[in-house]
Design goal:
Elements: H1 8-30, E1 54-57, H2 62-74, E2 79-84, E3 87-92, H3 97-106
Antiparallel strand pairs: 1-3, 2-3
Length: 107
């Protein structure tokens, strides 16, 4: 039989306490609010909630909007695809509006 010394009575409770401490930390991390790895649902908003961005066009669907957005990104125009209460809107900065309309008119 191995000898643990005169403090062997404390090893069991220490290991139990350590295990409970690790479980507490793990559960606090797992159930913490605001750090979810699951993407939230997109909630429609009004067009004026996008600050200075202005509407270029209203695509038929999100897929069409993503294709138009990619065309603008290819020519160097930053664009945002917004899901508003009025439908899908493709928005750009005001200084890029004329160039964005010309780019989309060519396609």
């Amino acid at each position: 039989m191995s000898s643990w010394g005169s403090y062997s009575f404390i090893y069991g409770p220490l290991m139990g306490g350590l295990l409970i401490g690790v479980l507490i930390l793990l559960l606090r991390w797992a159930f913490a609010r605001g750090h979810s790895l699951v993407e939230r649902k997109i909630t429609p908003s009004t067009a004026d909630n996008y600050g200075m961005l202005v509407e270029v066009t209203r695509p038929i669907s999100l897929i069409d909007g993503e294709m138009l957005k990619q065309q603008l990104l290819d020519v160097g125009i930053r664009a945002t695809l917004a899901l508003t209460v009025d439908g899908v809107q493709l928005m750009v900065w005001p200084k890029d509006l004329a160039k964005a309309k010309r780019t989309l008119a060519l396609t």
